[in-house]
């Protein structure tokens, strides 16, 4: 259902139906607002408030744990992270070793179930730049 519009004047009606935006017309309030004409504000721009910083607990770590970790000396923190990395690398090496000791699956013929779809795709000739009839 279309929206019914009532206009103040025939001029406004005409411009609306010509799809001329009010912002483009110098005599409209919309144009004056966009180009900062008319009212002069005292005090200038409002100052934006600076965002307050606050800490929030994350999953798996409470706020107290976070504060303790932040307060820890950087050398100790680096040593702890290094130990964690080494443990992870050792674990991955063991995992890789276990995976390589398994017997390899013999390669045979491809599955008959994996057939290509019939038709519907692009022609085998590959006429990519086809325009109109040939």
UniProtKB/TrEMBL annotation:
GO terms for molecular function: mRNA binding; structural constituent of ribosome. Residues 31-134 are annotated as: Disordered. It comes from Symbiodinium pilosum (Dinoflagellate). GO terms for biological process: cytoplasmic translation. This is RpL24 protein. Signal peptide: none annotated. Belongs to the eukaryotic ribosomal protein eL24 family. GO terms for cellular component: cytosolic large ribosomal subunit.
């Amino acid at each position: 259902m279309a929206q019914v519009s009532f206009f103040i004047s025939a001029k406004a009606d005409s411009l609306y139906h010509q799809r001329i935006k009010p912002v483009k017309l110098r005599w409209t309030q919309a144009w004056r607002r966009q180009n900062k004409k008319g009212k002069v504000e005292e005090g200038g721009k409002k100052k934006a408030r600076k965002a307050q910083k606050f800490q929030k607990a994350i999953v798996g770590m409470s706020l107290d744990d976070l504060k303790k970790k932040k307060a820890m000396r950087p050398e100790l923190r680096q040593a702890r992270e290094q130990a964690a990395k080494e443990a992870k690398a050792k674990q991955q090496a063991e995992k890789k070793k276990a995976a390589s000791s398994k017997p390899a699956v013999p390669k045979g013929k491809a599955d008959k179930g994996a057939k290509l779809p019939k038709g519907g795709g692009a022609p085998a000739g590959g006429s990519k730049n086809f325009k109109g009839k040939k």
